[in-house]
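Q: Hi! First time asking for a complex rather than a single chain. Here are the components, and I think there are two in total. Is that enough to go on?
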Amino acid sequence: MTSALVPLPVVLPLLGSGAALMMSRWPRAQRMVSVVVLAAVVVVAALLLVAADREGPQVVWLGGWRELGIALVADRLAALMLLVSSIVTLAVLVYSIGQGVTDNDREAPVSIYHPTFLTLVAGVSNAFLAGDLFNLFVSFEILLFASYVLLTLGGTAARVRAGTIYVIVNVVSSALFLIAIATAYASLGTLNLAQIGERVPGLDATTALVVQLLLLTTFSIKAAVFPLSLWLPDSYPTAPAPVTAVFAGLLTKVGVYAIIRTQTLLFPDRPLTDLLLWAALATMLVGILGAIAQSDIKRLLSFTLVSHIGYMVFGIGLATQAGMSGAVFYVAHHITVQTALFLVVGLIENLGGSSALLRLGGLASLYPLIGVLFFVPAMNLAGIPPLSGFIGKVGLLQAGIADGSPLAWLLVAGGTVTSLLTLYAVAKAWALAFWRTPREAHEMALQLGGEREGDEEHETPQVSARGHVHLGSTVFAAGDVQEATRAADTDVSDDSEDDLFQLLEREGRRPRPPWAMILPTAGLVGVSLAITVFAGPLYALTDRAASDLLLRTPYLEAVQEAGR
Amino acid sequence: MEMNATLLLVCGGLVGCGVYLLLERSLTRVLAGLVLIGNGINVGFLAAGGPAGSSAFYGSADPEDMADPLPQALVLTAIVITLGTVAFLLAMAHRSWQLHGADDVQDDVEDAAIRRLAVDDETSVGHSATTQGQEEDDPEEDDR
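A: Yes, that's all I need. Here is the structure of the assembled complex.
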């Protein structure tokens, strides 16, 4: 009965997208449609998860074309991913409404944002539910097209530059995917995942390996596994904050999901453990070393995102129940935490006027709530006990130790180092943006500005625009800020705690924290804490999901039975 | 399975030319490369569908003689998707041309900054030696 719900997470956002496009003249109605649709998807996903957990995978053959048509399958893994992703997208949507991306920002036209966002959600849901290789390809295309539009929203120079690279990389990876599909169809005569899974053992080993490696390469590009990750830190940070948040949270995880699905269902006999473990190690270390070098929070977080994909690949590479379960748990944890962090960065940008660490300071004393909202997910990302990041990492490290091979031990060491370096990277961001006093930040910026003036030739506009700490926000007219900064400059020698911010505050125009943005962010941080509190039941669920994945029979039988 | 060598050769030739064009700087050429790759893969799909046959309409021919309709449906979908991608990339190339007067694929801002840092780093002998060498090799790099 509940299997009738399976297509809804795809159909509802698509219909909503059409409705939102028609309502582009009535922004309020448009927002209402998008929120209602996404809330409905959350409910449907929760029902599907309960049904998939109690009664096994829910399968629908679309249009009643049994055994021939397109199957949609919601097993435990797919339903869990669906639930997490729909909660996250709902939070991001509410956040972007609060930000008013959509009204007064010239760089983000209102009429396009909501329909495109809903299309993105439809693509993501379809990717999780697809029981067919070509349907998986189509859902990737749906979500990629939406992401092209969202990434280049407004068509500014920076976004067009970043978007160009993003689009080309993804089109190439789609081409690889098509080659993989053609090869699979030529050799197996079907594209249904369950049927491929049954026929692969009869296939000659070389052909199977070609198909497997093609699929793995395709999904590794989407999931940003090193060395195919280089496009990500370049393209994500330029987009508007909510867009970056949803991309960072979801799109790479769709790639990880596709790796899990194809590796376990199609090629259970050849887990490619060595290859995946080396890739995981390189992803973790190179990613986090990149993060340490960054001086912009958005870029820093993009690099940690790449780095932590390595943990998931580690779990997948082990191909044991513990490893797979840890990877799935880590995906759920990482989606919420990474999205929450990017949303907080959006808040920082909104209040501080910049996301460059050198130009921020004193946010913890000015906005303690935002300090908390950054601190909790940041510590969670680094894996400080008792938060969910710690639980996920411990699960993966235990799986590695249980495996016991030298390479697995190397990965355990690499994972620990990465966790510590993540702590270092986020602690650096915390110390610079939140902990130091605005005065320290101001002086450091002045000093850097002075040093920079020497080499005009190489100055980047961001740094040369005077080394002032941006504590004002867009609320201030440019004239006010200039006046205040001039005053602050003259006061530098003075020992009083006067700084730009206090001067502005004395005039009673302190930027107010935007509650409509803070609430969804806080909600998402709350979800990540809930993952911590309910880690026991959730881990039990991912254990069951992992055993389903490795057994394969629940999935295969459910698809066959529904096909009859 | 019986394979059509012509189709495979055409497929390989198209994809090869496409990859060559993809390595160019100009977005328009990259776009042409992507179109060639897309078409090459579509031809590959036809090869994957097995030997040609009569059209797959119910009752029009013996099912044994019919061509496999599924790859054709897949190719149709792929063509539509390629069309959308091309339209989008053309718009991006046009926008890039509006903004910069050229449709070159730009360097990553941070990469460029790091490269400049390496050039500026006079304390490190090794660095300056290598970066100077690179500059001589590629004088255009700094002009961009």
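A: Residues 122-144 of chain B have pLDDT under 50 and may be disordered. Let me know if you'd like any chain examined more closely.
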